[in-house]
Amino acid sequence: MPKKKVTVKKSKVSSKKEKPIGKVTHYYGGLGVAIVKFNKAVKKGAKVCFCGGTTDFDQTISSMQYDHKDIASAKKGQEIGIKVKEKVREGDEIYDAE
Questions:
Q1: How confident is the model over 42-80, as pLDDT tens digits?
Q2: Overall number of domains in the chain
Q3: Which CATH number do you get for residue 48?
Q4: Which strands make up the sheet holding 33-38, listed edge to edge?
């Protein structure tokens, strides 16, 4: 019986394979906003990579909100809203892209 050839899709992050800095907990498609819980402090202007089963893109954080108010940085463990340029899904992980 012939063996199946398996190809593995490599993510942009797979070469570094660092720990994720956050995780998407919810996505509002109509607004294009992801609710993200961060594992460490993150500032507005940081370059991050959203990675998941069907998600893989880099973005600079241009808009962050907590309780409908703009903020300059998110604390560790805080859930905030981020305007995203592409669709993300719950469970997608966020990595530092710098």
A1: 999 999 999 999 999 999 999 999 999 999 999 999 999
A2: 1
A3: 2.40.30.10
A4: 56-60, 47-51, 93-96, 22-28, 33-38, 79-83, 64-66, 69-70
